[in-house]
Write a structure and sequence with these properties.
about 35% helix, Rossmann fold, about 350 residues, Dna Ligase, domain 1, alpha+beta, 16 strands
Amino acid sequence: VADLHKAVLHYAFDNCNVRELKIGEEKEKSTSTIDLILPNNALIKSAEAMIKAFELYNNPNACILFLIVPNERNICDQNALIDAIQKIRPNIRFHSKTFEQLINELFYDEKTFNIHLKPSNDEIAIVYFRAGYIPDHYVNENCWLIREKIEQSRAIKCPTIRSQLAGCKIVQEYLTHDHIIEKYIDDKTLSTNIRSTFASMFTFDDQQTREKNINILRENVHSYVLKPNREGGGNNKYDDDILNTIKNEEKQLINYIAMEKIFPPVCTTCLIKPNGKHVLHVECINEIGIYGTMVTNVDTNEEHINEVTGYLVRTKTTDTNEGGVATGYSVLDCLDVSEHNNELAKIFSKKN
């Protein structure tokens, strides 16, 4: 997205009667605002991490399996990752399969713990999960058995079941408890800085604090969001929906985590949307996520790769709680800051 924005802006300045804004004209060489768009190397770094994992599997004749949902809509970014890998290692082969397809096509060798695809008998080195993160993806018990075989196999998982569960909201809430972060991070300054980024979170499963937490939620309903222990979006509850849940479905609160609502700075921008339904000069907020890659041996705790690789910015209007790009609520964006005084810029501008 950063490269796309740079290209569009350069084209506009080259072909339209628009004066390019210059910053720091007192300097010998002024810096274009276009050049302040942060580089984003998430794709190439993801490809490099997957190649490293493939090499660690140590079978050049094996393949990589993308486990996808039926009628996959995210095929473009998946193909971009495949292209990036094959530019570096053109001999790596790929397959894309759904859980239901694997019921008949996955073979698990109980002696070697290898998994193969039938009828080609291709050994699978890496399973990249683009499905399996919500219960609806497991349409029957056989799909769960496929996940079990994959987890038991020698194949490298992205993510492993342990990594996937560690990202659940109940784990995030647990990490906010006193002394938990400190168990894993000895550096007091670092643990304090990490803890300073946490939003307040609480659950409703403890009878001793349940009523107190419900009252906090009821009295501050616009300051919190109810989040189920789910992924995939569209499951959160806000404002009046929270009050309705407390009033009519109080027993269901045990399935939710309350999190203090984050109020990011508001900016005025333009949203370019499909079918020409653009929104110009509208108040928006930005959601920034950080990409990272990690290749480790979970048995020995050996780290082969562990680095920040890029970012994702989603920009949406201030009047919506949802944030999905595919659903049309938000658009992809990029960061535009001075690399001379911004810590994020220093990270993403590193030459590797």
